[in-house]
Amino acid sequence: MRPRRLSAPVLLLLPAFIVLAAVVLVPLLLSLYSSFTPFRLTRPATFFTFIWFDNYISIFASRDFWWAFGRTVLLLTVALNLEMLLGLGLAMLVEKASRGQRLLRTLMMFPMMFSPILVGFQFKFMFNDNVGVVNNALQSLGLSNSAIPWLIDGGLAFFAISAAEIWSSTSVFAILILAGLLAMPKEPIEAARVDGCTPWQTFRYVTWPFVMPFAYIAMTIRSLDVARAYDIVKIMTDGGPAGRTELLWTLISRTAYGDARMGLANAMAYVSIILSIVFTVYFFRKLAAARVQIGAEW
Amino acid sequence: MATVSLKKLTKRYGNLEIVHGIDLDVADREFIALVGPSGCGKSTTLRMIAGLEEISGGAIEIGGKVVNDLPPRSRNISMVFQSYALYPHMTVRENMGFSLKIASRPQPEIDRRVAEASAILGLDQLLDRRPSQLSGGQRQRVAMGRAIVRDPEVFLFDEPLSNLDAKLRTQMRTEIKKLHAKVNSTVIYVTHDQVEAMTLSDRIVIMRDGYIEQVGTPDEVFRRPATRFVAGFIGSPPMNLVEAEIRDGKVDFGKGETLPLPRQFKGKVSVGQKVVLGLRPDDLYPSGHGIHSGEEEDVHQIELPVSVTEPLGNETLVFTEFTGRDWVSRMLNPRPLKAGDRIKMSFDLSQAHLFDAASGNTLRS
What we know:
- The complex is a heterodimer of chains A (about 300) and B (about 375).
- By secondary structure, chain A is an all-alpha fold.
- Chain A has helices at about 10-35, 55-60, 65-95, 100-110, 115-125, 135-140, 155-185, 185-195, 200-225, 230-235, 250-260, 260-295.
- Chain A has a single domain (about 60-295), classed as MetI-like fold, CATH 1.10.3720.10.
- In chain A, α3 (about 65-95) packs across α9.
- Chain B has about 375 residues and is of the alpha+beta class.
- Chain B is elongated.
- The interface between A and B is medium-sized, with 21 and 27 residues.
């Protein structure tokens, strides 16, 4: 009897399916399954105890989790808005430069070239209450005569983290918006000037609508970035003091690897991924609408 | 409505001077065309009038008021751009009403004025579309509508028809002419197309390399070009311009080929003077296939070989070889000719032009 042979399309697609299953599907299913177990790395047998939605129920009842969730949303809002404003400002300044624009564009990208871990270390050092340059400057300028506990007070620590996050990633906005400004035809701006617009009105009614899709692309990228923020916080405060700067992913990693409660951590991760999806969908909708608005051909 | 005056208007980019102190007076409600080849400074001049380019020297007056340092929005002008420059994110209605909205006019007034302008331009059906949903001609119309709605003192057009195909261009040209008759305001119109300039304008300003070569009505610049450049630029096909020398009362092209000195230039040239003779294709024709405008005795006939013919239906352009080059002539009621045929050509010298070879200026005066 002749062995049955697989048809060519199946055969050709099979390697891709196998690889995808091995690296994506199986881990995903396993992690989903483990979020329904009290799985602890230290007690492997717990992997096989099925506890239904207990993990999810305890998450929804957990104040720590919701604080971390809220802080992440706050960081997203603060960081994205400020990065947008600063990036827009930077892009518009660089676009005005008639000489050395290439050099400026390169300089603008510098912060993106450093690992977030190093940015975290640098900012931790700068915000150090004893030897940090921030306190030093404030004191030298006579604006403060005490050592401000930047990384020890909860509110200030959040500010310091936002500063590091914004410093390292404003250029994402700046570069995408600059691309938009450079791609923009100049005549509508001139038409607006003739039509009676002040420089502010020209920006408000002509330049901004054109640049908006580019800002939304940056928003989408950065919302995913910030929603998974971990490295800078880990280095600067490690979620401290007393959990006052705990974000979703620092909490999840602490639960998973510190407390070894993998099942619970997986359940948290699934909930927080919803956050990322919500933001991404939101900005994609905005992007699509903005593209239609300017009649973009891309 | 307003007059526009340019006084010693100069534009420099660094050390490079683009416009060299030009003077021009545009009368109220006049339609004036700035025409010239690319790089002659016509668009720069227009943009300076609009306030989109700073001026390096001289003055611009609109309605008797110096506007040198006023921003475009304070000059009471509107401008139509070559690329239409519509706002892509606004509908036709919003595009047209935008300037009024900026000026915080009441909504009913905006609606009324947009409706009036769109009726003039036949845009009523398109008011809720976006520019990306319009054809080139429609976009151009919206750009004009946007200009009309403002009811400005001066309209500035910067090569508005250059991006349209030939057929649409002819059609829009007529519409612009009608439009000017309706809105009856001062228009400054930049084009590199001499036909547009001739058909539309009351007066034409011919520019070259940042200087004004001649200002005159279409008829003047066509019939009495002040310089060799104007003679060559205006008219299609262009005037035959051939270098020669005055010798023995004749225009001598060398190698024994001559034409009699046209009567109108007797006493205005000196023997040995280097000149350029100009003769329009209309004033050179196969004998019996054209009309002479002057006296019979001014028509000089020579038998010449045909090198190429370009039949256009109602007429044929015949290129004949004379003085070592092709002279283009217009043959009315054409009969078939082929290359190499020798035919008798009529030179209507009463219509001939002579320019000084060195300065390029006309010797007519």
